[in-house]
Protein: ABC transporter permease
Organism: Saccharopolyspora gregorii
Amino acid sequence: MTEPTATVVTTTQSGTDPMAAHEIKPEKPRGLWADAWRDLRRRPLFLISSAIIFVLLLMVAFPQLFTSADPNNAILTNARQGPSADAWFGYDVQGRDIYARAVYGARASIAVGVLATLGTVLIGSVVGIIGGYYGGWLDNLLSRFSEIFLGLPFVLGAIVILTTFNQPGDIPSGTRVILQVVGSIAALSWPIAMRIMRSAAISAKQQDYVKAARALGAKPSRIILRHMLPNCLAPVLVYATIALGGFIGAEATLSYLGLGLKYPVVSWGVMIADSRDYIETAPHLLLFPAGFLVVTVLAFVMLGDAVRDALDPKQK
């Protein structure tokens, strides 16, 4: 089937000029995501936050591009020295280069944030879309179950989870403690993603395309995966983008309390925890890793705000 075209004919004083006639193809309508991407590219907030996040991802993947120093090389004679030409951010309490540790610490901090976000969105989306689609007693059961986790204070819940898996004197490996921190964050945060997905699913199942698919005999799994899920992802994506920065901050909070990542893992939270006894005498121990943390969290929050505005029809 050929695409319809429009013919434009120009008329002169002597009549119609056939050589001036030309065809114009109508512009194809853009979908939600294409329209949002076009809108995002025009937003300074998106461009600035994307540039910051791109640099951070380069830092995670290729830290050697930013520093040649060993983050674990300790020279005690340099302990707590301030910024200098040899060490731009100074040295920590064990004489390790703070700049090198901040660069290498991006890997663990951002990895925790990304994995915790994936776990939160995955659990919350599955539970939310099932409850929103089926409704009834199943929806009530899943909603009441999520409220149990939603009612737990985050720090208290994380303390209970992490102290349960780590007995006094137990020193877990780096991978194990990262998975424990990720699991505790996801276990306490998924009800928010569940509520967002549930609301979107309840609205989507009332749409004509879902009713038509049901009338044609489509299975619930096909309706959920092929018809509802693509149209319910936008609000969850916005939440995930903003929550990622919050989860990076949550890792730093848990590490500061001595419950999160620990040596030999290098992360911004671990660096902040190591500086708590020297804030007055050596403030650079705290300021630089905290600066990296604040900029990262702010970048993801800015990105989430830009994505939210681009996907919100009311902002058009």
Summary: Residues 9 and 221 are 52 Å apart (CA to CA). The radius of gyration is 26 Å. The beta strands are 6-8, 11-12, 15-16, 22-24.
